[in-house]
Amino acid sequence: MSELPQRQTDIGPPHYEQFLPPVIKKNYGKWKYHEQLGPGHMVHVSESGDKLWTVRVASPRLLSTDTIKDICDIADAHCDGYLRFTTRHNVEFMVDDESKVEPLMKELKDKGFMIGGIGPRISNVVHTQGWVHCHSAATDASGLVKVLMDDLGEYFTTKSLPNRVRLAVACCVNMCGAVHCSDIALVGVHKTPPRIEHDKVKNLCEIPSTIASCPTSAISPDPQNKSVKIKIEKCMYCGNCYSVCPAMPIADPKNDGIAIVIGGKVSNLRSNPKFSKLAVPWLPNTPPRWTETVAAVRKILETYEAGAKKHERLGEWVERIGWEKFFKVTGLEFTLQHVDDFTFARETWRMAATFKW
Amino acid sequence: MSELPQRQTDIGPPHYEQFLPPVIKKNYGKWKYHEQLGPGHMVHVSESGDKLWTVRVASPRLLSTDTIKDICDIADAHCDGYLRFTTRHNVEFMVDDESKVEPLMKELKDKGFMIGGIGPRISNVVHTQGWVHCHSAATDASGLVKVLMDDLGEYFTTKSLPNRVRLAVACCVNMCGAVHCSDIALVGVHKTPPRIEHDKVKNLCEIPSTIASCPTSAISPDPQNKSVKIKIEKCMYCGNCYSVCPAMPIADPKNDGIAIVIGGKVSNLRSNPKFSKLAVPWLPNTPPRWTETVAAVRKILETYEAGAKKHERLGEWVERIGWEKFFKVTGLEFTLQHVDDFTFARETWRMAATFKW
Amino acid sequence: MSMKHQTPLLDELEKGTFPSFVKEIKRAAEHSDYAQDLLGLLELSYKEKVTHWKHGGIVGVRGYGAGVIGRYSDVPDQFPGVAHFHTVRVNQPSGFFYTTKALREICDIWDKYGSGLTNMHGSTGDIILLGTKTENLEPAFAELSSRGWDLGGSGSAVRTPSCCVGAARCEWANIDTMSITHEITQHYQDEMHRPAFPYKFKFKVAGCAVDCIASIARADMSIIGTWRGDIQIDQGEVKNYAQGGMDIQKEIVEMCPTECISWDGSELKINNEDCNRCMHCIAKMTKALRPGPEKGATILLGSKAPIVTGALMSWVIVPFMKMEPPYDELFDLVDRIWEWWDEHGKNRERVGELIERLSFTRFLKDVGLDPQPAMVKEPRRDPFFFWSEEDVEK
Amino acid sequence: MSMKHQTPLLDELEKGTFPSFVKEIKRAAEHSDYAQDLLGLLELSYKEKVTHWKHGGIVGVRGYGAGVIGRYSDVPDQFPGVAHFHTVRVNQPSGFFYTTKALREICDIWDKYGSGLTNMHGSTGDIILLGTKTENLEPAFAELSSRGWDLGGSGSAVRTPSCCVGAARCEWANIDTMSITHEITQHYQDEMHRPAFPYKFKFKVAGCAVDCIASIARADMSIIGTWRGDIQIDQGEVKNYAQGGMDIQKEIVEMCPTECISWDGSELKINNEDCNRCMHCIAKMTKALRPGPEKGATILLGSKAPIVTGALMSWVIVPFMKMEPPYDELFDLVDRIWEWWDEHGKNRERVGELIERLSFTRFLKDVGLDPQPAMVKEPRRDPFFFWSEEDVEK
Ligand code: SRM
Ligand code: SRM
Ligand code: SRM
Ligand code: SRM
Ligand code: SF4
Ligand code: SF4
Ligand code: SF4
Ligand code: SF4
Ligand code: SF4
Ligand code: SF4
Ligand code: SF4
Ligand code: SF4
């Protein structure tokens, strides 16, 4: 490696202004309204009369520099060299004249980009590292996203739904995605307790913080082994001890699997933001195409599509019909695992005589 | 005392059947509908065509045998010697012929009974022992009921409200009344911690159960004194330690007072049963007529009356307008005490960006 | 008798329109020393703003551990008439119906052996005979029991069950609340009179989801009548309500929590599959609507007052149980629950608190109840849950 | 380059319509050994259904404790290209806008020093440069920083703040999300690069209650734009929506959570006093309705993923704060919160968890915020509360 330039520290990111297309700089804070023109393009109109067209395409998020450069080529050709990414990892191309929209969309289509994700449909899937980069992953994330979106792609590119359906995938219960407040989310879960490698605990782990890491107080000191022990019947396989202490591996290829949680949202429209709740506690981890999981998600989605009112988010629909009805109409099984026995369990019990048959 | 009759045990209460008026026995389980005829009388109609008129009168619940006998006289004169009490301590006189209703009501009025309490109004106040009989009482119950109902009597006898408003009074946080699920309820509260009488603890109290009684784990052993000690900043004056250990009196005439909780219900109509929530954390304990407390209750009631839709219970109204609005329209102060810091506090925090100005 | 004590503060409570408990005590004081001194003691409390009762000691009647609340004054010298002032809890008949004959009998006994003061009724449901001294307990009990009355519960025992009026005078009763209450009371006489539980256990029985006995708030086991099948509609009567001035759209359709009613001005339709049986429409249009045909009860468990970790309401543990004598299915369930509570409950731990501590899933498994969505408002949030040996691949 | 490893399972993920991450890795593998071996390692994971990464060690760039996630394979011999595979988190520009020039520069650096693989972007917001070895960290950082890029947060530090597009392209932005985010990032450079907190601290900034950055779910401090004053209505445009086929009654009036809108077919009225600013009506009728005139933000605190005691969403701690540069009021508040967290927080305890443990009232008192109903959905239930010395009569 040749001469290195002078490093700088604590400079923070570059100022965003230099990255704004001129039409945005000019109309910053002056937008008046927008119109959705199709599943993947829309126009924003400024007080000044200026307009900004946006075309959105899907991205796998895990991008090679080569693909980024391809994207740059398109932005150079059509957008004066500007572009942006969305908060859900899509790519947005923006132009300041209507005449530029068609050529842009044509080139995107020709190059195989998937245009869509705007308005009441499925957008990209917020997700995490999985087997690509994380030691904690109970499943892969990128792969699950791929198979989900292969199956549901039409909801990105064409079909609309009663409202947005936000999908997320997290490869473990640390939930680096937005799983805990998503319309439908997958999370990698374990089903068996960690195995303690006593000889390694000594060197690798701080005992008190290992003990403190356990949400259910299942871990206690094992002075004899200078290690810890686990009260197995208290362990609910969260893997937090493993986060803190590498000598307690929990991965178990036979029993790790995927849970589906649903009905969360973050927007404040109509109803308050909601946590996701458990729909399916466990499905087998079946790479490369996880057919059981994909089928279950589609089932939930289609039942929502058929049952919800316009503008109703998935969680709003479920709350309107009631969870007992949700299990009935989806045909999903209600199990002991669905009954909350964690910190705030009490608030979930049916303290009322009202429910549907 | 003369010869005593032979005692019997474990016979249970007399069978209710012998106490049922003949028209009820005949139409048991066959009632078809009822009609409310006035604030204090109604008629039930049977499939058989038979009818049953009920007239309801208020009772202070604390009754002398003399008054009970007066009541019996009326039941003998008009109701063939039958009567009943309601689950809220009112007295109900029942007749099987329309012609008997007027004379019955006339005599009741003449004798000074308060007829009313049926339908969408205030009925009797569920309450507890207070200074009349309980060692735990932070205030009196019967007295509070009396002054409340003196003030609100018209809502029993004539005026109607959007729906029933259930009042309750408990003289301490043991809440022997139905305070925790009432539309408006008063509860006697302390504001200062218990005083430990170390010399008595030894003899009167079991240390482990005293320690276990504290909801906030404020109590710990004090081996030196063979007693216990209290971490004052953890004590929220519930008095449960005093329930378990008489050597820890908590009554404090200067600082004991009355909290008002509101918005609870038990019926399942429309909305699920609801817990009452804190409206006023403390008002001074001012016997004999507790004017501050009575005024605050009236204020809440009238604001409900003015704001609620027909059939809306008080808690339903508050939830519709929002608690922030409730404090605004009633003018009640929102204090640190209103912010939950007990077991399930988290569920009460505003996890949303939506609230009213 | 003239009044022994000056009661200027209490006298304030003789004023006003609502019946006065002070007048009641004064009436009794005409012939009762207890009542005389109760006035004095109560006046002192009103003046000093503090109770003058001490913790009760263990008093009762022979062979029973329950039914009497011992009570002693902390100023016995000043008010010897209430030095002892024990309460006797007499088990009320189901539904609070009486003949005057029966009531007079009780009154006479209490005039003879007690203060002449009562609560009709206690919050749990008992006839409360308010105040007597220790030596009168046995004779009072002999007189009462020989006339067919028995004591109710207190302490760590089954507490006196109570119920709404139900089938006796209500068109909405899906179950025979009075019979069920009576049978429970009779079935558990021993458990009521001889405290042997970790803590108290209360039963309350309501004929429908209106819950006129507040069972969901105040009973360890709440039995609430309900139905399966379609709400029965009399369209003629619906029209009568409309003609009578009811705004059916606003008052019924828009207030139905499940949005399952529609009304086009001539026909009321209910999508019964979506109805959660809240009772609103039926209650407001009692002539037109009636509960569905198949009757039974929802069994809920756990409600109690706030001490120690916060108030609980009962929650569903059996969505639907047929309720016909001899109620074996119910008793069998209760026995299983008690066995579990007995085994795991700490001293002074209500069954609801125990479930909170050990978990609802554990309760369901141990007691042998199948998980059903009706038991929860919503499934768990965080994907932290347990599996059994048999769920795991080896 | 031809592929070094057979990847029959991964190849399945090249099929289908959605862009394939496997294709991306393969593209990079054309010129990167890292990517070649990543394919092999990933195929192994797909086969064995288990991750092949070990806990990361402490690696980073000189003077920083954050910004790099160390990562080592547990099968380095089999896949030496990913024996080290550290991630560099580069702080994205506010709003995720780029020039192609800037992006290409980053790509070139990463082709030179890393795997040629990225995440655009990480869930927190960073540009994730995915995979390099330890010795390349310093040079990569020198190249990046000399061109104006800096690292983002990791570990127990301020994490890279992020925001929605806001005023740059959205008509509903009540605050300048991009400016606020940039200023926060600059203000807390030290706290971001040198972890010294009990645990991580995330900021996310949304221009309005639509919350397109999911701030309420994923940020210890969520800053959400809002307004005071009346929603501005253009009645002509309302009519256009109606004529355009919108069922205003159903889609707007009946979906307003506070029931404060009415529509008589010609005029839309909003009772602004009852509006809770949920954004539904504005979002659905953007040409006709606009947020009120006085702009600011609601500050919420505490959200996080479920570990340890369950997921939290942020809750209101300041109902309304003006948001104008230099944002001193905000920084002052943040400093007070951190001081309190620093003093009381345990290791690995997020600020929301700390408040849960010590109580919200304690937090409010210590940090000096006045209690307001906007902070709670409802007041406490059980009447168990604390008083201060000054509230008590001696
Ligand atoms: C581009 C983006 C902001 C950014 O800075 O990148 C954005 C942009 C817009 N959002 Fe959003 N939202 C964006 C992420 C979000 C998120 C965050 C997320 O998904 O993690 C949410 C919250 C989702 C949730 O509640 O779980 C979000 C919930 C909404 C909603 C509310 C929908 C609802 O009824 O709950 C609207 C309003 C509407 O369309 O009615 C909205 C509306 C809009 C508007 C129409 C705002 C405007 O006037 O410009 C933008 C149009 C684009 C569109 O229809 O997708 N946007 N939007 C984000 C695009 C992500 C993507 O690639 O799909
Ligand atoms: C890279 C990223 C996922 C992604 O693919 O996008 C990520 C990756 C990791 N997260 Fe995360 N988190 C990432 C965003 C999140 C988010 C979402 C967010 O920030 O908006 C969350 C949920 C919100 C929150 O903060 O609670 C999140 C909640 C966690 C947690 C749980 C923390 C908790 O208090 O519950 C952990 C566990 C931990 O801290 O030990 C965690 C830990 C980790 C670690 C460091 C694994 C570990 O235990 O040490 C992961 C490193 C993976 C790797 O090898 O690259 N990560 N993590 C995200 C950061 C990229 C970026 O800088 O832009
Ligand atoms: C007599 C009594 C039952 C008993 O066994 O003693 C009774 C009797 C009736 N109740 Fe009740 N309820 C009685 C206590 C209750 C209770 C329990 C309580 O207050 O502790 C409740 C629950 C209150 C709550 O939710 O907090 C109760 C909530 C209702 C309701 C529901 C009101 C609502 O919309 O929430 C109705 C239905 C209605 O009227 O629409 C109702 C309706 C009725 C009906 C109309 C039932 C019928 O068809 O006969 C009875 C007419 C009397 C009336 O209007 O008061 N009754 N009712 C109780 C009279 C108490 C009293 O003296 O006032
Ligand atoms: C008499 C009565 C109040 C009344 O005026 O009606 C009453 C009176 C007492 N209750 Fe109660 N409770 C009475 C119904 C209730 C109810 C309501 C109910 O049963 O429907 C409750 C709320 C529901 C519940 O069970 O939680 C109730 C919840 C309590 C508690 C709190 C228990 C808890 O687990 O939270 C205590 C404290 C205790 O058990 O130590 C308590 C304790 C007491 C004691 C025994 C005082 C004590 O700490 O030892 C009181 C005796 C007063 C006296 O001297 O007469 N009482 N108690 C009620 C019983 C009359 C009857 O048998 O009919
Ligand atoms: S969710 Fe778990 S496995 Fe996935 S990136 Fe985050 S910490 Fe790693
Ligand atoms: S996996 Fe979770 S529950 Fe099990 S021992 Fe580890 S930290 Fe505790
Ligand atoms: S509420 Fe408290 S003071 Fe009143 S009777 Fe019950 S235990 Fe006694
Ligand atoms: S009064 Fe309550 S909080 Fe205070 S020490 Fe006694 S039991 Fe604990
Ligand atoms: S609970 Fe139902 S059945 Fe019982 S009295 Fe009330 S309305 Fe009638
Ligand atoms: S009982 Fe309740 S839920 Fe059922 S139709 Fe009537 S109002 Fe609706
Ligand atoms: S959060 Fe509000 S201001 Fe920001 S992009 Fe979404 S709609 Fe626009
Ligand atoms: S912003 Fe929401 S609450 Fe306000 S008027 Fe519009 S829909 Fe109603």
Question: How would you describe this protein?
Answer:
The complex is a heterotetramer, with 2 copies of chain A (357 residues) and 2 copies of chain C (394 residues). Chain A contains 11 helices and 12 strands. The model of chain A has no long low-confidence stretch (mean pLDDT 97). The longest helix of chain A is centred in the C-terminal third of the chain and has 17 residues, at 291-307. In chain A, the strands form 3 sheets. Chain A has a 5-stranded antiparallel β-sheet. In chain A, strands 7-8-11-12 form a 4-stranded mixed β-sheet, with helices on one face. Chain A has 357 residues and is α+β, with helices and mostly antiparallel strands. In chain A, α4 crosses α9 (291-307). Chain A has helices at 22-27, 65-78, 101-110, 142-152, 154-157, 198-204, 207-212, 240-244, 291-307, 314-321, 323-330; strands at residues 31-38, 41-46, 51-57, 62-64, 82-85, 91-95, 167-170, 184-189, 219-222, 227-230, 257-262, 277-284. Chain C is α+β, with helices and mostly antiparallel strands and 394 residues long. Chain C has 3 domains: 8-146, 2-Layer Sandwich (Alpha-Beta Plaits); 162-227 and 294-393, Sulfite Reductase Hemoprotein, domain 1 (2-Layer Sandwich), CATH 3.30.413; 230-290, Alpha-Beta Plaits (2-Layer Sandwich). Helix content of chain C is 31%, strand content 15%. Chain C has helices at 8-11, 21-29, 33-48, 100-113, 137-146, 177-187, 189-193, 215-218, 235-243, 248-251, 280-284, 328-344, 351-358, 360-367; strands spanning 53-54, 68-69, 72-73, 87-90, 97-99, 117-120, 127-130, 162-163, 203-206, 221-228, 232-233, 261-263, 268-270, 289-290, 294-301, 315-321. A 5-stranded mixed β-sheet of chain C has the order 8-9-10-15-16. In chain C, strands 2-4-7-6 form a 4-stranded antiparallel β-sheet. A two-stranded antiparallel sheet of chain C has the order 1-3. In chain C, α2 (21-29) packs antiparallel against α3 and α4 packs antiparallel against α5 (137-146). The structure holds siroheme (4 copies) and iron/sulfur cluster (8 copies). One siroheme (SRM) sits between chains D (69, 71, 87, 89, 119, 121-126, 128, 152, 160, 202, 218, 304-305, 307, 350) and A (128-129, 133-134, 136, 174-176, 243).
